[in-house]
Structures
1.
Amino acid sequence: MSARAFDAEARGGRVGAGLRGGQRLLRRIVQDPMGLLGLTLALLVVVTGLFADGLVLYDPLKIDVPNRLADPTLAHPLGTDQLGRDVLSRVIKGSQIALLVGISATALAMLGGLSLGLLAGYGPRWLDNILLLLFDAIYSFPIVMLALAVITLLGPSLATVMLVIVVGYVPVYARLVRTSTLGVKNSEFILAERSLGARPLRILVRHILPNVVGPLFIIASMDIPVVITIEAGLSFLGLGVRPPAPSWGRILNDGYSFIRETPWIVIGGGLPLIVTTLGFTFLGEALRDTLDPKLRRTI
Amino acid sequence: MLIYTVQRVGLAALICIVAMTILFSLVYVIPGDPASIALGPRATAAMKEALRQRMGLDQPLVVQLLYFFGNVLAGDLGLDVWTNRSVTTIVGEALPYTAALAATGLGWAVALGIPLGCYSAIRRNTPIDKLTGVISIGAISMPSFVVAIYSLLIFAVALKWLPAIGAGERGDLVDQLRHLVLPAFAIGLGWVGYLARLVRASMLEVMGENHVRTARAFGLPERTIVFRYALRIAVLPTVTLLGIAIGGLLSGAVFAEIVFNRPGLGQLVYGAAATRNYPVVMGTVLVTVLLFVVCTMIADLTVALLDPRVRKSL
C-alpha cells in the first residue's frame, strides 16, 4: 500500500469531508483538464435533459413525410429521419429518457445492493454464503442475454429494461458493500458499540452504513453512463423504449435501417451516447481521484 | 493445488445449478403462460394444451426442474417451437461463429492492450503515458454497438474497404477473415483500454516491490527486470479479467452480430426473442452462462497455477 493510500485510509470519513468542502472539490476537478472536460460534457447532457422541452426546434414526434431523409440544413441541423422527423429535436428529447433510466436504475440497484450487501457482510455465515452464490449466479448472465430472456417473457418496455438493469447490477454493488462491511465489522468502534448493547440494526445503519456508502457512491456514479448505454443498446435492438418515443437507441435503430441512404441519423443518434459516456467517465475518474485515491487500483 | 481445484470446480458447479434454477424459475415468476406466449393470441386452447404437454408444463414444478437438469446434463436443451429441431443442434451451429468473433476480439485486445499498459508504466508520467491513459478511458467508455455502427458506416458503407454484412463464404478463409475484422474491432476496442489500464496499474505496483529493487541492486539490465521479474507478476490480474471479459464479449457479440448481420449466438437469441421462440432463447442464454462460468473458472485456476498465494484463499 502506498503512503498516499494509507494516508487516505487513515482519514476516516474522507468522502464526507470531501463533500462538505464542495468548493474545494470543484476547484480540484476544474484544475484537471480531463475533469474539466468531463464536467463540461456531463453538464451539457444534464442541462439538455432538464430543459429539453424548451430546447427542441420542432415537436420530436411530428411527422413530415415530404421532407424525409433530408440532409442537414440550417432548419434541420442533423437532417430528418425516414418519417421526416427532425433528428436534432429527437436527440435533445432523447436525453431525458437516457438520464431518467440512467439515474433511477442506478439508484435502485444501489439501494438493493446496499441492503443485500450489508446483510451478507454483517449477517450469519450461512446467509452470507447463500447470498454470495446467488450474486455469482446472477452475475454469470451476460446482461444483454439476461435482458433478452426476460424480454421474451415480459415483452419490451421501459419498465422491463429498468428491471433487467437493476437485477443485473444489484450483485455488483452488493459484493462491493459486503467486502467493505466485512472490513469494518471487526473494528474496535463496532466492538465497543456491541459491548454497550447496541442492537444490530442500529450498528448497521448508524455505524457501518456511513463507512461503506462512500466508495459505493463513486462506483455507482461511474456506472450511470454504462446503464444509459445498456438502455440505448436494448432500444437499438427494438427491445427497450417503444416507438415513437425518441430514445437514442431508437434513433440509431432508425438510422441503421437507412444507413446506405443517409449517414446523418446514425451520426446524430451515436454522438450523444459518446458525449455522455465520455463526459461522465472523465468526471467520475476525476471525482474518484480527488475523493478516494485508494479506489484507483480497482479500475 | 488439488484442493483448490476441487473447491473451485465445485463452486462453478454450484453457480451453474443456481443459474439454471434462476433461468427455469423465470418462467414461473413472470406472469403469463409460456405456451400462450409462444403461440400468440390466436392459438386455440387445444393447441396450447398440446404445446404445454410437449414442453412438460403440465408436470409438478419440482419434477419439471429435475427433468430440466437431467436433460441439460444429457445435452438436451429442448425443441425449437417452430421447426421442431433440437435446440442443442441449433446452438451448436451458431457457437463457432461467436467463438471465432469473441476470440479475435479478445486476441487483438490482448495483443495491443498489454504492451501498451507495460510501456505506459515504464514511461510513467511522460506525455505518451498521459495520452495512452486518455485514449484508454475513451476506448473503455465508447459503447461497443456505437463503435460497431460507426465502423460499419465508415469502413464498409463510405470507404467500402471491408464487407458490411455476413460471415463470408464457407471454405474461403480470406473472405471469412475480412468479414471478421470490423466486428472484432468493435467488440475488442473497450478491452484494449481496460487491459492497458489494468496492466499499467499492476506494473507500477510490482515495480515498487522488494524483489524488483533487489534485482536492480544486483545490477540486472532494465530489460530483464521488466520482462522477467515485473511483467510476469503484473499480468496475473489480467488473467482474472480475461475470464470475466468473456461475459462482456458475449454481450458485445450480440450487437456486433446484429449490426453486421453475422450468424452466431447473438443473432440466434435475438431472432428467437422476436418470434417468442422460448426454448431457443433459454437454451442459448444457458449456453452463454455455462461458457462464462467455465471461462472464469479456468482463469482462476490459471492464476492459482501461476501464483501459489491464491491457492489458500477461496
2.
Amino acid sequence: MTRLIVRRLLLGLLTLWLISLVVFAAMLALPGDAATAILGREATPERVAALRDQLNLEDSVVSQYLQWIGGVITGSFGESAATQQPVSELLSERVGNSLFLVFVASIVAIPLSIVIGVWLAMKRDKPVDHVGSTVSLILAALPEFVIGLGLVLLFATSVFQWFPAVSLLAPGERAWEAPEYVVLPAATLVLAVTPYISRIMRGSMVEVLESEYVTMARLKGLPERTVIWRHAVPNAIVPAIQVAALQLAWMAGGVVLVEYVFSYPGIGQLLVEAVANRDMLVVQAVVMLAAAVYVLMNLVADLATILVTPKLRTAAR
Amino acid sequence: MTDPRLEWLDDPVTRRQVLRGALSGAVVLGAGGMLGACGDDDDGGGGGGGGTPAQSEGQLRSGGQLRVGATGGGAKDTIDAHRPTVDTDIMRCWNLYESLAVRTPDFSELQMLLAESIEPEAKPDTWTVRLKQGVTFHNGKPVTADDVIFSLKRILDPKDPKVGAASIGYITQNQLRKMDDRTVRIKLEFANSGFPDDLGQYFNAIVPTDYNVENPVGTGPFMYKSFTAGQQSEFTKYPDYHEDGKPYVDSLTIIDFPSDEARTNALLGGQVDVIDNLPAAQVQNAEANPNLRVLSSETGAWQPFTMRIDQAPFDDNRVRQAFRLIVDREQMVQQVLSGHGSVANDLYARYDPMYAGDLPQRQQDLDQAKSLLKQAGREGLSVELVTAPVFQGIVQAAQVFAEQAKGAGVNVRVRRVDSGTFYGDNYLSWTFAQDFWASRVYLSQVAQGDLPDSPFNETHWPPDEKFINLIQQARAEVDEAKRREILHECQTMQYEQGGYIIPYFSNIIDAYSAKLGGFVEAKCGFPFGNYWLKNVGFLA
C-alpha cells in the first residue's frame, strides 16, 4: 500500500512537471506579453518598453522557465507581474475561499446524491424515478453558469430576496466568516455535480438490488433498512466514489465559471484575470494547484476504492 | 487557455446571448423584475436614441454611505493618479484627484478646477497657469506651483511615461517655470490653442510634491481610506473640498465587477446603490423596477472600425468609401446598442463647437459601394476584421458589419481575439480592426490619433502633408472664425478619405437606486457625468 502511494505520488509529480511545461509554452504562444496586456489600450511603445524593463520580460525564455522552476523548488512562486505582490500571498487569500466553497459543496453534494441514488433505485420505474432521472439529466445538461444565474433570479433578485446575489467579500474577509455569500455558489456546484453522482449511484444500486445476496438477505428476513444500508449500499458505492472524485476534481476547475457569475473572490477569478493579463507566474501557480488537486483526488479515490473493496484491499498488501 | 467555454467570460454581451438562447428567451436574465416576461425579448425596442433623464426630484441630504459597482477591474488595478487604464481606475481618479481644468459633463465648456486661469501669451506656444487660492490637498497642504511642476514632470518622465504623456508630450520640460507660488509658465514645442483641453484631462491630475502611491493624496472630493486591487476601494468625504456643500455622502466604496451580470445583480439585490454601464439590453427591465432609476445619456463616445489607409485593400480610397457606404447605421444602433446611441457620420468630436455638422449624413448605399469596389478592381473582396471584447458592443458591431457587408458582396471574416492579443504585438498596426474613444474636442482627438506622431494612430492617417499643415495652422490660429474654416477643411478631408468608419455614438447608461439623486447627463462619455460622485446624494 505504501509503495503504491509513493509510486503514485512520484507519477503525480512527473505529471505536474509536464503540465508546467505545457502551460509555460501555451502562455508564450499567446500573442502579447504582460507589459502590453497590463497597459492595454494605453500601450504606447515608450510605456511598453519602460514596463518590460521593470518586469524583466527581456530575459530569454529558457532562463525565465529555469528561474520559475528554481523558485518553486525553493518554495517561492515569484511575483505577479500585474500587482507586484508575491504570488503565494495573492493565492493564499483566494485558495482558502475556493477550497471552502468546494468543501461546502462536496459535503452537501456527496451524501445527498448517494441518498437520492439509493432512493431512486428503490423506486425504480415508478413515476418518481422517471421524474428524478429527467430532472437530473436536465441539470447535467445545463452549463453551471446558467444554473447559477437561475438561482440568482430565484433566490436573490427577482422572486425572493433571501441571499446576496453577488459574493462581495470585503478585502481580507474569508468566506467562512461570511457564510451567506457561499450559499448560492455552493448550491450551484451542488446542482452541477449531484446528477452525475446520483445517476451512477442509482445504476449500481439497481444492479446490486438484483443480486443474489440481496435476495438472500431479504429471504433471511433481515429488515429492509439493514438490507439496504448494510449489504447493498457498501457494494454499490465503489463506482460512485470514483465519479465523486472525478466531480471533485472537476470542481477545482469548474469553480472558475461559478466564481465568475457570483464575483466570488477565489482562484477561478484569479486565473481568468491572470490569463488576460499574461501574468505568467500567477497562471502557472493556479494551474499547478488545480492539477495537484486533480492528481490527489484521483489518488484518494483509488485508495478509497481499495479500502471498500475487500478483494483489492487484500491484494494490495 | 483556449477553451471555448471560457470565451464568453470576457464578453458580457455574447454571454447574455448564449444564455438567452439557453433559456429560449423566456427568462430575461439578470435583469430586473420579471420572470417569463411575455416572451418579448429585450433587444430592439430600447427607449429610443434620446437620453431620457430619470432625474430624481427633491433635495439631497448630507450623509450616507454610497456603494458603487464599477465595470471590470482586476489584479492590475491601480490608484496611481497618473496610471489609470481601466474603468475602475478612472472612477477612482476622478474622485480622489483633480486636474487644472475639466470639460463639464455637458461638454459645453472647459471649467477651471484647480486653475483660476490658463492663458496664452500672444502666440499660443507659451501659457501661464494661475492657481486658485485656498485649494488644499487632503493633508491640508495648499496646492502650489511646485506641485503643478512636479505633477507634469511625473507624467512626462521619459524613463516611465504615464498615461498623460501622450496628451501633453509637447510641453518643453526643461522650460517649466515657477513664476510665484501660484503661477507656472509653460512653454510648448509648438503653438497650440487647444492646450488647456489637453491639460484638462483626468489623467493629468495634480498631486503634491511628496506624492506617495501607498497613501495617495489629492484635491478631489473624496479622501483615500483603503484600496485592494481587483476587489474594492474605500474613500471618505473630504470636508474641506473646495466646492461648498460637496460631496454629499460621508463615504464612498467602489467595488470591482468583472462580470456585467454580477454588477447588475448586485444592484437588483441592493448590494450596491449605483452601477455604471448598465448593458443596453437590460434597460427596459431595470426601468420597470420601481426601486431603480436609469439614466441613458447621449455622449460623444465613439467606437470606430479602423482601416489602415497605407495597406491594401484600404490604401485605395474607393475601397474605404465603399466600406463606409456598406454600413446601415440605424440598424447598427438598434442591433448593437438596443437603440441607446445615435447615428454618426464618420467624424468624431460631435460636441466640439467646430464640428462639421453640415456634411451630409452618410447612408447605406450598397449599389454605390459595389460600383466603387468594381472601379477599384476589388469585387468580391474578402478581408479579416480583428475584434476583441474591449468595450461594450464592439464585437457585436463587427458581426453586424460582416452581415451588412454581404449585401455588397464583401466577405468580412470576423476574427475575435482576447484583449491581451488585441493589445499585443499587432496593436495599432492591424489592417482592419476596431477601437473605442471618449468624447474629446477635435484638436485633442487629432493629436491622439490622427497625426504621424500621435500615440494611437491606428488608421495611419493622414495620407499627405496637407492635413498636417492645416492642423498646425489651426493650432496656432487665435481667430475663431479662421480656425473654424481650417478645421472644416480638415474634417472634409477625413469625411472624404478617412480610414475610420464611425457608425454611431454610444450612450452611457447609469443605473441607480431610487433613493439617490443628483445624477446628470454625461455627454462627456463618462458615467455619472465625469464620474462625479460628489454630485450624488441620498434624497432627503
